[in-house]
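Action item from last week, closing it out:
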Amino acid sequence: MYDAPAPQLTEAELRALDAQYCSWGDTVHYLAQPKFFDTCDGSYMYDAEGRAYLDLQMWYSTANFGYRNPRLNAAAHRQLDVLPQIASQHLHREKVELAALIARDAEAKFGAKGRVHFNVGGAQAIEDSLKVVRNARDGKGFMFAFQGGYHGRTLGASAITSSYRYRRRYGHFGDRAHFVEFPYAFRGPKGMSKEEYGDYCVRNFARLFESEFHGISDPKAGECEFAAFYAEPIQGTGGYVIPPKNFFIELKKVLDQHGILLVVDEVQMGIWRTGKLWSIEHFGVQPDVLVFGKAVTNGLNPLSGLWAKEELINPEVFPPGATHSTFNANPMGTAVALETLRMAAEGGYERTVPEKGAYFLEGLQALQKRWPQIGDVDGLGLALRAELCGADGFTPDKALLDRMVAEGLKGDLDVGGKQMGLILNVGGYYKNVITFAPSLDITYEEIDLALKLLDTLLRRCVVN
């Protein structure tokens, strides 16, 4: 007997069910009334009334190539019809080809042979990387990481994430990282240039190894207690903070001197967000381990992974079963990721992303001249930031950004007589930074629209 489909629930009914049955432990309920969306396309999300919301964060830099990208969606459909499922003890073509593509690219860029290991989420790949580096350094569990750094909220990843609030309720397995100052120039020492501040941070880090009383190493024995340094080349959740060009070169010299591995977290900034496949390419150093995720599948199917140098991950030192996830190299994810990398290589993003980013940054700088509440703007490619402050241009103003986020989601911003919305993301040490991660295929007209919408929001939300 045919059963008619159940009637579609109203938004009010859905909110009642959410209040009763959904965990609120994820990130949805920061707003009292989280927004419902029905469809998406390109740079836009759409509500039930068909109202458009220009999205300037694209699922936290996951949908880098736009929502419902036709070529990537088609790749997912093809794989769904051929080999959508396979147990992870078997091989499939897409896994091997994707690993080879990433490893060969890394060897060409970093001059080191390596291998690729897959998982399903950024934090899970970070956990795998912790196993790789601890194994390579005889079980040493201590790690360095940066203040403002974010690497995930699983127990191991939260131990190397500087925000205590992610550990406060639960503690963590293993040892919490030793957190090192990151050259956040806008809030650095007065009178120092960005480059001088970067040198200052490296020198302070190097001094930790001068005496055993810093609790880091035994200079007489030449032994360090730390296995690796975890770093986002550009801080993500920390507010898209961009270090000076020479910073990582100087930092890597200190790490190599003391046998400490450099693990770069490219989960948010990788996959051409900055105009390079990996953001570390801008800084001229060779990582020992590189972790990726998010945009590698444009968000269509969970997939993450890591690349590590051969001596860290070859089968003799990292044998079968060293780490495992049922879905770690799933064919849907690897097929879409393979198509993502092929499409991007053909798409000229190494040229278009810097060009669009420079245009967007110039527009933000023009807004900054009109609004003293924009204390700082910066960007690399299409990873951009605008730090919101009080009228003095420096005191963090989280409340202003909170108002802008909420007002943008009302969908009633008037642009040329058309009502629409704007989706913004909150970041930064003081939660007062708009972190911009638009589609890499955003048009210049959409960038102009974004700037108009931001100006409209500021006029609505700045309290005189």
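Closing note: The CA atoms of residues 102 and 415 lie 43 Å apart.
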